[in-house]
Amino acid sequence: MIEVREIRKSFGEVDAVNGINFHVGEGEIYGFLGPNGAGKTTTISIIAGILLADSGTVSIAGMDIRKDGRKIRSLLGVIPQEIALYEELSGRENLHFWGSLYGLSGRELRSAADRVLERVGLSERANDPVREYSGGMKRRINLCIGLLHHPRIILLDEPTLGIDPQARINILDIIREEVSRGTTAIYTTHYLEEAENLCDRIAIIDNGRILAEGTLQELVRLVGEEDIVTVTGSFTAEQVNPLLGGVKVDHLESDSIRVLVPDSHSISGLLERFFAAGVNVGEVSIKEPSLESVFIKLTGRELRD
Amino acid sequence: MKLVSIILANDLRRRLRSPFAVVIMMLMPLVLTLIVGIVFGRSGSVELPKIRVLLVDRDSGFMSNLLRQGLQQDRFAEMIDLVIVDGEEGYSMMREGKASALVEVPENFTGDVLDRHPTVIRVVKNPAESFLPMIVEEVVETMVLTIDRGSRIFAEPIKSVRVLLEGDRWPTGGDIEDVLNTSRTRAILVRGYLSDSLVTLETETLAPEGERTGGINLFAFVLPGSLMLGLMFISEIVLRDIVREKQTGTLARLFTTPVEAGEIIAGKIISTFLITAIACILLLVIGRFGFKIMIKDYLALALHLVASVFMCTGVITFFYGFIRSERAADAILSVAIVVMGLFGGSMVPLEQMSGTLQAAGRFSPVYWAIDGFKKILVFDAGLADIRLNLVVLLVIAVMTTATGAFMLRGRMQRGG
User: Fold this and answer.
1) Residue A204 falls in which region: left (phi positive, over 0), alpha (psi -120 to 50) or beta
2) For position A158, which CATH number holds?
3) Is there a contact between A45 and B252 if contact means CB atoms under 8 Å apart?
4) Which of B6, B18, B260 sits opposite A100 (nearest CB)?
5) What pLDDT does residue B416 have?
């Protein structure tokens, strides 16, 4: 559905996007995970038609964005990172204006506006000026505008930025609903849990480049992450040291040992040896590798940096 | 075109919801007109430029000398620059607009006054000036009244003095005593004396085309200047949306819809034109009924309004072709509008400026709009009289709109 090849974009001396390639299949949610300034918004702006790439190609539904811009834009629903609304107009008037630009009119436009307002719980405040809305309410109207015309592709640029957890859950549910109807989505975020929970595939982006992409499992495998197993109880380091065999020890002290294993099954042999030697094991915890650890491994820093 | 009309309708709706800035800018010309009109029209407490008055003295007698000396005495000398000219030269200077008024004293004025024959003093006023010729008219009228009353009261003694002066011998002490006694007696007898004036004042205003009945409305003279200044600011406020929407993100969002950059720009320019035109119409309606400004040729006014508003929109579009932020707009446009207004005659009537500034004013697009409005509102000009103004305004409007729109489109397509 979306094919991006070698796109580059510079702002003066800064290379915001530096040769990005990816494709997104129909009905897929493709996530861009990266810190602020990584190039997520520039990439999505090029796909949305807001910016022209210095080089490279973007093709959507088989059409080139440079040649068929208007046709492509009619397929898109864009939810920008900043709240882009006319504050002096009501929520409903905003929806009517943006909807009419996508060709909706009359009863179709009114019912589409009523539908999305109902879905985000803003029907009762629909006729109030947007300037009187809270930040979360504005975010919801911002989202509604992008979904009003049932686009084939939605581009979401950090749509949950700065809102409370409940509103975030609501917005993520709405996106899932849209995608369940066959809509394709590109979702940028710097919230790890959003990328993990929402996206089918994730691209980790930093300094204008995609460092890795794939499903969550593929990404974890790609960087060779191991499960972290922590065993606590009543034992000494000397008591357990001879029992470790080939297991990688991350941390060892009296009553606690943390080891790295390729997968959770590898822990069973170790525990058998512990029980056989009479080591008093109190608790065993297994932590699978997360996107956060993958991100740290790839970029050398935490996402919030 | 449908998308342009959607953007246009949205901009108009938004302006209707938030009309404060435009309303303030509409009040500005009204307040300015009112203040200037009241100050120059009634109180006279402002320091005025010296009024150049041409005196054509065809009499050169005792009474005309009295009139001339009256106009040159201390109080009037501070206000009036009196130039003695012959008739032909005087009228020629008036046609060239080199004086505010011409006062013509007829032949045998002194004889007619002393012989108590009706006579006429003419005051010819410059049509390009409104209040200065009015002052001359008032001054001359006062002096004529004084001469008339004086000549009635002291006719006999003056006649005696004339006989004594024109006689072939020196007057004796008895002769002078007789004159003084007669004068004193007359002064006592004519106390409360009232009768029809022997000397009357005839006033005429040179009109460029035909005669205009009634005086010039000072408000009509002042309104065009402040109106154009207000309209320029209104256009600026409305078209500022282009940079404001860039900052609020709605412009970028528009680019994600099926709308093209050209359609967005067209919508913005048309909404600016319409809002400025509506403001102009409202101001002229207020001027017509509030300031009692007479409008003779509504077609000429309508066409000139369209051309002037189009010019405002075009010039502001041109500026926004290279202005990228509200801060830059604040810094550049306010100054640019004030300078254009100043040179175009928005603040000080161009007629009161030096020749160099008057010539420079023609390079301000605002000048052509103000000049046209003045011709229509002050001098009852018709379509033929404002042809040049319309052509110049439309040429400026088309050129600036096209250049500004082209620059804006290029910038938007580059994502700037």
Assistant:
1) beta
2) 3.40.50.300
3) yes
4) B6
5) 55
Which of B15, B17, B256 to mutate against chain A (most A CBs within 10 Å)?
Answer: B256
What SS3 state is found at B48? coil
Torsion of CA B289, B294, B295, B301, to 10 degrees: -70
CA distance B231 to B22: 9
Q: Is residue A92 part of a domain?
A: yes
Question: Tens digits of per-residue pLDDT, A140-180?
Answer: 999 999 999 999 999 999 888 878 888 888 888 888 888 88
Contact A73 B18 (CB under 8 A): no
ipTM of the prediction: 0.79
Partners of A5 in the β-ladder: A57
Q: Indicate the residue among A183, A204, A221 that finishes a domain.
A: A221
Contact A101 B14 (CB under 8 A): no
Residue that is last in its domain, among A165, A190, A221: A221
pTM here? 0.69
Please report the pLDDT score of residue B17 as a whole number.
Answer: 87
Residue B201's pLDDT is 63
Closest-CA distance of chain B to residue A229, Å: 48
Domain span at residue A279 reads 226-288
Residue of chain B whose Cα is closest to the Cα of A83:
B249
What is the percentage of chain B residues whose pLDDT exceeds 70? Answer: 87
What are residue A55's DSSP bridge partners?
A: A8
Nearest residue, CB atoms, A101 vs list B17, B252, B258? B258
List chain A residues with CB under 8 Å of B255. 48-50
Fold category of B47-205 in CATH? abc type-2 transporter like fold (3.40.1710)
For residue A114, tell me if it sits in a domain: yes
B106-148 residue pLDDT tens: 988 888 887 778 888 899 988 777 677 888 888 888 888 888 8
Question: Which tokens hold the place of A257?
Answer: 């040992």
Number of domains observed in the structure of chain A = 2
- For chain B, where do the domains classified as CATH 3.40.1710 start and end? 47-205
Query: Which residues 49-78 of A have a C-beta within 8 angstroms of B?
Result: 49-52, 69-71, 73-74, 76, 78
Residue B18 Cα, gap to closest chain A Cα (Å): 7
Q: Across the interface, do A84 and B253 touch by the CB < 8 Å criterion?
A: yes
Instruction: Give yes or no for residue B191 having a pLDDT over 60.
Output: no
A233 beta partners: A281
B173: helix, coil or strand? Answer: helix
Report, as an integer, the average pLDDT of B236-261: 91
CB contact under 8 A, A84 and B258: no
